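Dear H.,

Thanks for agreeing to be a second pair of eyes. The structure we're designing against is below in token form, covering all 253 positions.
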């Protein structure tokens, strides 16, 4: 790779949500330690395709540039991943960039991830503490639980696991693997546990736990190495127990 003087990209572009996608090739000068984001920045600075024709700058999302925000997710050489951590030196050329197709395309490599965020709202993937007054230090989480909960908290809602999951598509309402993980995380929190039943009941509705086909693509594709399949199993067990509590109308089941 270091002997090559240029880097070639084939980018699937789309002018607006309703237009047809098309491919456009670009060739830029090679620089050591270049990642996909820096290459896209170079294309944006000088939007001329491989034919030498002036074109519109490529659109994509980005923010932190250090694999924390999850905004720059796209399909790189057929694999959904973060473009900020995708090094050109480690990619086969020509480098093919596509938008994630699980989500509606806004333009070029930009997608609308509202589907995932709406699902997180359904299961209340947060700890609802009302008021601005001091509530005190709150209950402490045991260290063993804190350690595995921290691994779950690494989720950056990048959408890669949804893109990799065959059960998340336009024909289903399945909320996706990331939601399992967040339900488990907030139900494990000493304060968040007060809404545990509410989260599990929401997860037993259409689009929830029954939509998982156990393909395990999610855990293989997660850029943070989160044990998503473990969370899926844990939430399924908790939801089954919650269904018995609902049936018998008791918290002592």
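And this is the sequence the design step returned. I haven't edited it by hand at all.
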């Amino acid at each position: 790779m270091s002997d090559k003087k240029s880097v070639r990209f084939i980018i699937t572009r789309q002018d607006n949500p309703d237009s047809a996608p098309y491919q456009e090739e670009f060739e830029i000068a090679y620089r050591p330690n270049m990642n996909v984001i820096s290459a896209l920045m170079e294309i944006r600075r000088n939007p001329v395709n491989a034919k030498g024709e002036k074109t519109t700058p490529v659109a994509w999302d980005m923010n932190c540039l250090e694999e924390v925000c999850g905004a720059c997710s796209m399909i790189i050489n057929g694999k959904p991943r973060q473009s900020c951590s995708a090094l050109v030196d480690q990619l086969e050329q020509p480098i093919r960039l596509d938008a994630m197709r699980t989500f509606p395309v806004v333009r070029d490599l930009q997608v609308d991830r509202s589907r995932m965020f709406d699902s997180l709202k359904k299961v209340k993937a947060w700890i609802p503490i009302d008021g601005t007054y001091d509530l005190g230090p709150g209950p402490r989480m045991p260290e063993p639980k804190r350690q595995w909960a921290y691994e779950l908290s690494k989720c950056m809602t990048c959408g890669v696991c949804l893109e990799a999951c065959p059960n998340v598509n336009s024909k289903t309402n399945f909320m996706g693997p990331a939601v399992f993980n967040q339900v488990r995380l907030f139900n494990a929190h000493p304060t968040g546990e007060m809404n545990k039943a509410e989260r599990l009941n929401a997860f037993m509705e259409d689009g929830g736990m029954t939509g998982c086909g156990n393909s395990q693509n999610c855990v293989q594709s997660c850029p943070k190495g989160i044990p998503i399949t473990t969370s899926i199993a844990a939430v399924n067990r908790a939801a089954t127990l919650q269904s018995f509590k609902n049936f018998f109308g008791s918290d002592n089941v």
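Two observations from my side: The first strand starts at residue 6 and ends at 13. Helices lie at 36-45, 114-122, 143-152, 160-164, 177-188, 196-203, 217-221, 228-248.

Warmly,
E.
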